[in-house]
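Bench notes, afternoon.
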Amino acid sequence: MTKAPTRRVLIGGLMAAAALIAARADVRADAVADFYRGKQVKLIVGYGPGGGYDVYARLLARHLGRYIPGNPAVVVQNMPGAGSLRAANYIYVSAPKDGTVIGTFSRDMPLFALVGNNANVQFDSRKFTWLGSSSSYGNDAYLLIMRADAAVKSIEEARRPGGPPLVLGSTGEGASGSDVPAVLRDALGLNIKVVLGYPDSAALNLAIDRKELEGRTTGLSSVQSSKPEWLRPNSGMQVLLQFGRTGRHPDFPDVPTARELARDDNARALIELVELPFLLSRPFLAPPGLPPDRAKALQTAFMAVHDDPQYREEAGKFQVDISPIGGEEVVLAIDRIYDAPPELRDTMRKILGEHKGGG
């Protein structure tokens, strides 16, 4: 006779507990909304206007505020410098740690921080509050794109001992535009000279158009959005190699991947290590130490944006790759970089040290 009342008491207790949990969740959600309501969130971009990172950032900024509780305005602030190292250090060290600052910088920064030789690195990549990445390179490719009238016109010519180098440009150390060519020199035996110090992607593209540079390494989606004329027939540009992929991109079936061109297993392992950052190709993050409820709100909002029909439509107009991953997946990719064999990290450190300054 006591079973029914006992069951009712148990069910009643569970319902009360569930209601209490839901109430607490509502309180937390309300607290986040109250914090953000009427505020402005700054989105720091580690490069100047017009490049691939800037395109992704401005696209996100136009939609993110609708998914953050309290609907704050999201404003882009460009902070170029040292291949986006300036922005990375600012977000980690100086930016408010209250959820009002988020940012994006070079995909290579986690690798650069681990194996680089730059004493100016002030961050631990694993301690950022990672929101996710808008692209995991599902439909993208990193291209070595050159002027067709460059002195070197093929991979075979670029490998010729004592031959003229491919003259490329980059923003600075720690950027894909300097790290990838350094690895291509070592792993593939290419003659490459990199000129560092360009402020942003737009400046690099202009230098190529003016024949100050012969080419650069850059993402296909970036070219599609900022220099689509380079991909047209008889444009005066040619693609020699693709990077960041396990296989050839369907748009470039006749262009070899770096993995295919690797001279041995050690070279291929080195290439695969440097390709890991492309899983977080367009990373977005916040400073470390955010209040957990605001961190969760930003992470949830970031992923929700990528399912938004308006966002998707606008991304299609820019022809950028949208293959998002969340913050947890970004952390797993960074862990894989940090778990690389010590001898591979030492090789990478040696390469970056030898080619420091674009030598």
